[in-house]
């Protein structure tokens, strides 16, 4: 799995049956952090997978969600919304510097799934929305 090669201890796919049972097997006390890309579908399940003091970082959502707050209370856990676009210039520079440092040291190794010509941006956008891909699609502005 590419994420494990990148340094993740464990990764799980929400689309696999019983992924949450596998998480519970691998981490009896729960997980420290979940980066959630579809909170309206997964958030209530995520809460119940956290350890005490754990956090769900919501980076994506496509609708409303109903949760049972008891799961948070019993774990003293947090849900935090994350939007890079709200970062201050100083925070953005700190983030950019950390990314550049990680790339230069080889600690960060982006997975590029495919490259597309900038002229094909319309079809690339359709493909991103309608197909599943491993890695990021990169637009190349030169021929």
Automatic annotation (TrEMBL):
It holds the Pfam family ADH_zinc_N. One of its GO terms (molecular function) is quinone reductase (NADPH) activity. It comes from the Eukaryota. One of its GO terms (cellular component) is cytosol. SUPFAM superfamilies: NAD(P)-binding Rossmann-fold domains. The keyword NADP applies. Residues 1-22 are annotated as: Disordered. Residues 5-93 form the Alcohol dehydrogenase-like C-terminal domain. Keywords: NADP. PANTHER family: QUINONE OXIDOREDUCTASE. This is Alcohol dehydrogenase-like C-terminal domain-containing protein. It comes from Paramoeba aestuarina.
């Amino acid at each position: 799995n590419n994420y494990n090669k990148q340094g993740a201890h464990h990764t799980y796919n929400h689309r696999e049956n019983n992924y949450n049972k596998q998480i519970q097997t691998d981490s009896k006390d729960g997980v420290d952090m979940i980066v959630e890309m579809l909170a309206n579908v997964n958030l209530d399940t995520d809460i119940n997978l956290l350890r005490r003091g754990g956090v769900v970082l919501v980076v994506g959502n496509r609708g409303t969600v109903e949760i049972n707050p008891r799961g948070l209370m019993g774990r003293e856990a947090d849900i935090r919304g994350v939007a890079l676009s709200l970062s201050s210039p100083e925070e953005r520079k700190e983030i950019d510097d950390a990314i550049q440092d990680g790339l230069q040291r080889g600690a960060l190794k982006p997975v590029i799934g495919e490259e597309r010509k900038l002229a094909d941006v319309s079809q690339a956008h359709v493909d991103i929305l309608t197909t599943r891909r491993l890695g990021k699609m990169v637009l190349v502005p030169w021929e």
